[in-house]
Amino acid sequence: MYFVIFVDKIHKKDYHFVMNNFPRLINIDPEQKSSIFLFGPRATGKTTWLRKHFSQAIVIDLLKTEDYHNLLSNPSRLEHRIPPHFSGWVIIDEIQKVPMLLNEVHRLIETYGYRFILTGSSARSLRRKGINLLAGRALDYRMHPLTCQEMQKSFSLEQALQFGLLPAVYNAADPKHYLSTYITAYLREEILQEGITRNIAEFSRFLEIASFSQGALLNLSEIARESGIERRTVNEYFSILGDLLIGFELPAFTKRAKRRLMTHSKFYYFDTGIYRTLRPKGPFDRADEIDGPALETLFFQHLRAINDYFRLGYTFYFWRTSNQAEVDFIAYGERGLLAFEIKRSKTILPKDLKNLKLFQSDYEMAHLFMLYGGEHEEYYDNIRVLPFTKALFQLKEILENPLSTSN
User: What is the CATH number of domain 35-136?
Assistant: First the structure.
């Protein structure tokens, strides 16, 4: 990957943050009969969206102390919060706070046919304590940070790369301070309250060190040496980030490999703002070391969101040979095999295309895309070159129909 800053310089005082009322791409049919799990990291807008679109629902908020203690001590009290013969929706917000409620939800679905929407920002407790009880009885939906498709003209690449796309960032007078507070809240509420680890100082140090692995191959032994944390603990901490939905591993693409490939996964925090807040910065840090992974992150979070919201069925990978030739993102699914390379410079040179061409020499059916910092769409043999922001806005159409070459 090659990095050259191509966005216009905008001073902090020039950022314009407004109260957001962005329409979200997620679509849940209020007439459907199945109950629902709605997962997503904290502050991605799950509760706000549900209260707007399911305004007649009964809402039980487990972040409220009274609701939490009342149902934690006796989950069977849930039945008494629902009127007899109720046919609407019952929303239980942050269901992972009281996992044993799933037993009661299961019983009420079977006995009365009630419909539940269960939101969660952590899969850890549910996986440990019975999420499979609802297998086949609840559909799975995901909520992500904002996308450019939702923000439309309010989208700014510079802002998104600097502060990320959590909705509350665009309501905050000081987005940098908000992001710092967000991370602190995760440490306090998710880590400490769930008893995931008692060494909060060590875990805080790990979060910073993990930010150096953003968009890079995971080397647990090296991270353990740099942090002074045991390798087994480092592995567990990365699992915790996945359980809390704030970090994801991108596996290597090795299907029908024709050459020797790297098999280690790459790591990404779920949002550019979270990554940049955690990433330490100093006089020895080059801009491309931070800005490059941020651009990759922004593209990856759009990939994940569009794929989930429109149920396109792709699985995402990266591709890297033992000789260090790499393609940043691979999308694999029934709709096709797509390869995306991210480049920040404003011009395309022949050498910039060699990794995509190498990938196609192994996978002739692949559709190839280069996203760059220029202004014009270009074509080089089978490679479609798109301005980065334009590609983000067209991502749904690209994933739905990779053969499309519309401007």
Answer: 3.40.50.300
